[in-house]
Amino acid sequence: MMTENEDECDVQICRLMKPDDANIAGNVHGGTILKMIEEAGIIASTRHCNNPAHMNDEYEPSVSALVRVETTDFLQPMFIGEVAELRGKVTYSAPHSVEVQVMVTAENLLKGTKRLTNFATLWYVPMSADEKGKVLPAPPLKCPSKDVEEAGRARYEAQKAERRRIGLGGRPSLLIKSNDFYDDDGSSETLTVSHSRSSLIHLVGPSDCNTYGYASGGVTMKLMDEVAGCVAARHCRTNIVTASMDATNFHKTVRLGSICHLTGRATFTSNRSLEIEVMVDTEYLLAGSDVRERAVHAFFTYVSLGPDGRTQPIPQLKVQTEGEKIRYEEGKLRYEQRKSKRAANKQSKPSTS
Amino acid sequence: MMTENEDECDVQICRLMKPDDANIAGNVHGGTILKMIEEAGIIASTRHCNNPAHMNDEYEPSVSALVRVETTDFLQPMFIGEVAELRGKVTYSAPHSVEVQVMVTAENLLKGTKRLTNFATLWYVPMSADEKGKVLPAPPLKCPSKDVEEAGRARYEAQKAERRRIGLGGRPSLLIKSNDFYDDDGSSETLTVSHSRSSLIHLVGPSDCNTYGYASGGVTMKLMDEVAGCVAARHCRTNIVTASMDATNFHKTVRLGSICHLTGRATFTSNRSLEIEVMVDTEYLLAGSDVRERAVHAFFTYVSLGPDGRTQPIPQLKVQTEGEKIRYEEGKLRYEQRKSKRAANKQSKPSTS
Amino acid sequence: MMTENEDECDVQICRLMKPDDANIAGNVHGGTILKMIEEAGIIASTRHCNNPAHMNDEYEPSVSALVRVETTDFLQPMFIGEVAELRGKVTYSAPHSVEVQVMVTAENLLKGTKRLTNFATLWYVPMSADEKGKVLPAPPLKCPSKDVEEAGRARYEAQKAERRRIGLGGRPSLLIKSNDFYDDDGSSETLTVSHSRSSLIHLVGPSDCNTYGYASGGVTMKLMDEVAGCVAARHCRTNIVTASMDATNFHKTVRLGSICHLTGRATFTSNRSLEIEVMVDTEYLLAGSDVRERAVHAFFTYVSLGPDGRTQPIPQLKVQTEGEKIRYEEGKLRYEQRKSKRAANKQSKPSTS
């Protein structure tokens, strides 16, 4: 009974990686993978929330909206010609949100080998398909055991606390229009923050959107990885690849016909990694006003690969202004947290790949 | 052991249908579905042919090339916002070819309902990944029973006989450059063959191709359905949808940088269906010469949907020239064969959906 | 005050060039660049026309439609892996039209070098977002000085005169359905006009269109460059690239669900360049009638690159019919005008790149 239920929520996606999914060195963009992860996530969540087995008289059809992605590591590179296989599963359900876990493997069809490349956790909120902006209750998930349910609730509470912290003062500057992000002293000296600062501006078209006229979270993440990649390439001038995306909240949904302003800037360099902060502001062209709203804010980590495909040292970032120095120190802190978290994960999951 | 092996060859693809996948009425194009079917097919076949369990010392990596698709019916319409789920499985293996069966279901996420939309059978040939044009042996498939194996062999022999018949005299005119296909008496009278005759001309770009620089069979089928759809729209001026594609052989692979010339013409109308013949000729732009080669030839059947989503009568085709009359009679024959075949299938598989 | 205003109208687009954006030799298609230029243009113009600072009580939201592109030279090639950076700015506003200038640079991320590749001028008309076909007034632009305003007005008047000249008889054959464009004597001799004559036929889908169901001017220009590229490749059989597009008017907007018929033919060869005339006719499939309308007409100039990336001599065009000879002479005239204009530009702008 239980297993049947779980199977229904399973989603599996396979796709052959093509030249456009990758950079010149043949490495599939992290953004391509994030986009596919979100596609698996939204199918799994929407399917769970509209499952006829969960319906009662008050049932109202819902479409899931991405609100948060937990830290996502890119464990192994993926290459053109390989098959990306994604398996998504609903793993926890709170009163108004659903957790989906997605596992990504890369398969070399010619060699017959598979390797784990990503493991991602996404949070969705069911939104009414009929009434714009109305949040609906998420149906409960039968968990196979008490322990599994407890672990899920702990993950739910942790992310809720984290989101509240950011919203209520932990980092208020991110939610209002922080002008400092757009400041640019125009320094042309190499390896400075100004030098690698990059922007992408994208007009949201029909193929970026779902049936309800909103850009999918996956499209936004792909653009975010693209602008981070520009910063990394400008700073390193080598074959750079995404190593991780930190936990990221999606504050605003992006409408069809909006302009997405994406800006990326380097914040910190360790010996072999570069941290990049990415902001997404959105502006609806036909609105009477000129309001730009912060839709997403995230930190990406990039590494540089040598001709042998192994990571190599990163040129160190030159910080100049007071703000850059503060952000560098904050970046260092995040870097150390990531490192210790990864070490803890390795100990607890010896059999990951 | 057996089932494990089978599972390895299984492939599952889920994809949310977007505006780009459908016509203005929201019906997903038959061509979109054919393209996804071929994507599932090529992954399943390439995976089977490179499975390490099948390898020996002489093993050489191979890429599968589509050589034939059996008659594919579109049993039910699919809509934007639904999830297409495709399950592919290798079902037979001959010395140099592999049969893949793909089942397609459409899932309405909001209602939680699923329905079978297609069942397709594709034949692939493993080609050397290193040496252009070299056909490789296909590894054997362990069949669950003697009966299953016999049935597979019968399908294999039947399609081989069919392909030989066409090649050796059954309809040689299709393989050489038949000028009559390009003839157009320029009649502007509505409902004639000339009136709805349509062409598409497409430059084959990188995203149409696999890593080896060949257009995937799925891309070609999508374009074929597109040109057939133009013919049907011109003839009916209503919401028209693909009802079936007859068994189709792929004579030539299409190279990156080629121009695909697709032409479609109406050949026959029954009360509620329109048969359209589609030719694909290909021309490699950078070749010293100007040779056009026939790559594919197929028959599509379209139906017209009324505002209630049900099929409605089709305006009858006016045939004028001698050739048009002959093709009309041939079309009538195919129409009756399809009808009796479908009736036979219904009797033998009462529980399909 | 002034500078703030200017900044608001600025638009910046950065995009990484991918395999799909380029030909087999890695040169980014001129059409890709024209498409991005138009994207920058439409954002700048639509933003200007909906700027709250310009609004009064009668304000009505508008979408900008491309009506004209001034001659656009491709000064330098761009390659896959480079970042295209486009900066657009509204530079003049007439009562019902807006001028946008776009500067394009290519940045080699690995070398850290940037070079100017294009400088384009586009004219837009604000159309009502609510009422189809209604032209709206364009808000005025505060110009930094009297001289700047005068120069803008002069450009506005010059293009208006040019458009009126074409419309009123200067070149009437271009605006009506000129059958001679479709005539083909079927000559198979190489280097003749017939031999390299090329067509593309494209069904306009949702991703080609804006939110209002009209193909963007950029999509049309990309297809135009594609068909011109086919002509050039057939004539030269080498690595050919776009050198310029002459000033081009957009007579008709192209609807979603239309078929675009693009035809290109060689008109003139100089020692190192090939001029190609491109016609775009459009036909709305679901219309009761079969009317094809001329949407755009343009002249492209192509050059041929040798293995060292430098231009090389072009095989001379063999003109045969009376019409071909007349068009050759007209082409020669345009060639000489372009040459003298470019020489004049060089003198007046010594510091362009």
Written account of the structure:
Chain A is an alpha+beta fold and 353 residues long. The first copy, chain A, has 2 domains: 2-170, Roll (Thiol Ester Dehydrase, Chain A), CATH 3.10.129; 193-346, Hotdog Thioesterase (Thiol Ester Dehydrase, Chain A). Helices cover 29% and strands 31% of the residues of chain A. Chain A contains 6 helices and 13 strands. In chain A, a hairpin with a 4-residue loop joins strand 5 (97-108) and strand 6 (113-128). The first copy, chain A, starts with a helix and ends in a 5-residue tail after the last helix. At the A-B interface, strand 1 and helix 2 of A face strand 1 and helix 2 of B.
Question: Nutshell version of this structure?
Answer:
Chain A is of the alpha+beta class and 353 residues long. Chain A contains 6 helices and 13 strands.
H/E element sequence of chain A: HEHEEEEEHHEHEEEEEEH
User: What is the percentage of strand-forming residues of chain A?
Assistant: 25-35%
CATH 4th-level superfamily of the largest domain in chain A = Hotdog Thioesterase
CATH architecture of the largest domain in chain A: Roll
Tell me, rounded to a whole number, the average pLDDT of chain A.
Answer: 85
CATH topology of the largest domain in chain A: Thiol Ester Dehydrase, Chain A
- Largest two-chain interface: A-B, 38 and 38 residues
SS summary, helix count of chain A: 6
CATH domain class name of the largest domain in chain A: Alpha Beta
Number of strands of chain A: 13
Number of domains of chain A: 2
Query: How far apart lie the N and C ends of chain A?
Result: 29 Å
Shape of chain A: globular
Low-confidence stretches of chain A: 1-9, 168-179
Structural class of chain A: alpha+beta
Strand count, sense and barrel status of the largest sheet of chain A are:
13 strands, antiparallel
Rg calc of chain A:
20 Å
- The helix content of chain A, as a percent range, equals 25-40%
Identify the quaternary structure here.
homotrimer
